[in-house]
Design goal:
The protein is mainly alpha-helical and about 130 residues long. It is about 70% helix and about 0% strand. The protein has helices at about 10-25, 40-60, 65-90, 90-105, 105-110, 120-130.
């Protein structure tokens, strides 16, 4: 994959994910937006560990396989945000996560972090399992 220039969509999403631990900490001081809240223990794991990890994956995909994995990780995290937003009726969180998923469909974002290809995954797994 070489060293492609990171598109603005990927940069903005990664920076937002890097900022998540600070926003979760700000919820202790009364900040209420999206899914950030001090009274849910899961938030500290999701925003303190998972969000920055996904941001790091997006920041430096390195290879085509890593780019596909970072895109998949972003989809998983954003889907998690949508489900939590629906559950807690935080419509702003649902809208923001859906907007990020839509923005990840831009051609520059798809070139930088391509989608997973099921045939490649099956071939890789069958190689690991010794099947041909």
């Amino acid at each position: 994959m070489g060293d492609p220039q990171r598109p603005w969509v990927i940069t903005a999403l990664a920076l937002g994910l890097f900022l998540a631990p600070a926003l979760q900490a700000a919820s202790l001081a009364g900040f209420r937006a999206l899914n950030f809240a001090p009274d849910r223990p899961w938030n500290y794991l999701a925003y303190g560990l998972a969000a920055p990890y996904v941001g790091m994956l997006l920041w430096r995909p390195g290879t085509r396989e890593a780019g596909a994995r970072c895109r998949f990780a972003a989809y998983v995290f954003l889907s998690h945000e949508i489900v939590r937003g629906l559950h807690f009726r935080h419509w702003d969180a649902v809208a923001v996560a859906l907007a990020w998923i839509a923005l990840l469909q831009f051609p520059a974002a798809r070139r930088y972090a391509p989608s997973l290809r099921p045939a490649e995954i099956r071939a890789r797994l069958s190689g690991y399992l010794g099947r041909r």
